[in-house]
Amino acid sequence: MMTEQTKNIIKATVPVLAEHGKEIVTRFYQNMLQAHPELKNVFNMAHQQKGQQQEALARAVYAYAANIDDPLSLNALLENIANKHTSLGVQPDQYPIVGEHLLGAIKEVLGDAATDDILNAWGEAYGQLAGVLMGMEHELYRVSAAAPGGWNGWRTFIVREKNPESDVITSFVMEPEDGLPVASFEPGQYTSVAVQVPELGVQQIRQYSLSDAPNGSTYRISVKREEGSDNQPPGYVSNLLHNHVNVGDSIKLAPPYGNFYINVNATNPVVLISGGVGLTPMISMLKRVLQSPEQRPLVFVHGARNGKVQAMKHKLRQTAADHQNFRLIMFYNEPLESDIEGQDYDFAGFVDINQIADKVLLPDADYYICGPVPFMRLQHDALMNHGVPETHIHYEVFGPDLFAE
């Protein structure tokens, strides 16, 4: 247990973290990756270049310090991190490396202000946090390996299908090279893909939602090609998958993980809300719910730029026509002349819960949201403003974490 003295010291450093957090974690990453270049095979180097990983870790450290009296309030965050870590293959012997360089960065940036008491307090706090995460990850690894068709680490799969879903999204159907079954998964979970990126000279790992219902023999992911812009480079892994990975090629996958998934045993209504490539976990949820004999009321709200970039649009329309309990609502914020309102899309503009409140505010419904963070925040707040309880709103964030994407 952490002593009260340690807690008090941690709380006293909260203003310092708010002021110097980004500088501390930037120094931390620089020093650690220089001393341990092998970790470049684990960290997302694109997020390193853009500073996203540094910002995410700074926020996480700040949240930890600010909630040191009530660590249970961070359980959801820690569960998310533990799932990301296991999908990346993070091991216990990597935690001391992180701790050493995090404390070293605090000392470098704060100088004499980082007294022995402060460093000892943060060492104790980090040790407790690491212990919690390692315990969670040990259990996740155990469950994954024990499941029928399960495994730990990386497993070689063969690409059996490569199907363009839109101008920017392509699906890959993959079967294990050994011909054995694959573990089932909860609709909404993801797998990690590990590939060598020639431009970087290192392995890179990315997490992609599984975009089909479990079938015991294959996994499907649907990947958006990230073109890049003046402010950020193109997606190393997404472009490699689109341009160079073809049917018959091998690829390494981790077991399914993730704590964002639908409760398939419930019977209450389900409302899925997604933007852009955020529809991928929703497709898995949708297919699994429609397989249930319960005939749960199901609404799928999706926002895309236009018909060229919307993935699986014809399949979704056909699914809506085939199932009386399923309603599809499409928003296009930049519809093309070829896009027909009432046929290809239902509303012009961005997804607006207020505009469709009569269609999505269902009694006792659970709401699942996936997409860019500003999009999810907007939908979350709109639902809250309409009186939807926080406990009925679920969302997924794919973004930089301590080791994660």
TrEMBL record:
PROSITE patterns: FAD_FR, GLOBIN. Keywords: Detoxification, FAD, Flavoprotein, Heme, Iron, Metal-binding, NAD, NADP, Oxidoreductase, Oxygen transport, Transport. Residues 1-138 form the Globin domain. The keyword Methyltransferase does not apply. It catalyses: 2 nitric oxide + NADPH + 2 O2 = 2 nitrate + NADP(+) + H(+); 2 nitric oxide + NADH + 2 O2 = 2 nitrate + NAD(+) + H(+). Residues 152-263 form the FAD-binding FR-type domain. Binds 1 heme b (iron(II)-protoporphyrin IX) group per subunit. FAD binds at residues 190, 206-209, 397-400. This is Flavohemoprotein. The lineage of its organism: Bacteria, Pseudomonadati, Pseudomonadota, Gammaproteobacteria, Enterobacterales.
